[in-house]
Amino acid sequence: MTENRTQPRFATTTEAGVVIVRCAGDLDLATTTRLRDALLGPFRGDATAVVADLTETTYCDSTVFSVLVESYREAVALDIPYAIAAARIAVARPLAILGLDSVLPLYTGVAEARAAVTGDPSVRIS
């Protein structure tokens, strides 16, 4: 049987000091180093806030959750606003099952996550 996997893709953009790290495709142990570099890199730069965009992540395993917790801890330690956009069931449901949805700053979309880290009241967070 051929396994249908979506290649992982990482991209970083910066808008007014807010770094948005897009993590798409299947993320697992094999991509952990790249994911960690992508999510922790902005904290070593001049980011005023960081959004981890996992809205296009199609699969993730427990190593991904470890990196999300690690990046959140880094944000807290450096007092840099941080949010995770994770609407897909592949990410949101396991986070809820593990109870991480009550610990990590999760939002359903990038706009909501960005509003949360910038304090922008023009975007309604449901």
TrEMBL record:
Protein's recorded name: Anti-sigma factor antagonist
GO molecular function: anti-sigma factor antagonist activity
UniProt family annotation: Belongs to the anti-sigma-factor antagonist family.
Domain of life: Bacteria
Chain ranges of the STAS domain: 8-117
PROSITE patterns according to UniProt: STAS
Pfam families: STAS
Entry-linked Gene3D superfamilies: STAS domain (3.30.750.24)
Protein species of origin: Amycolatopsis camponoti
PANTHER family membership: ANTI-SIGMA FACTOR ANTAGONIST TM_1081-RELATED, ANTI-SIGMA FACTOR ANTAGONIST TM_1081-RELATED-RELATED
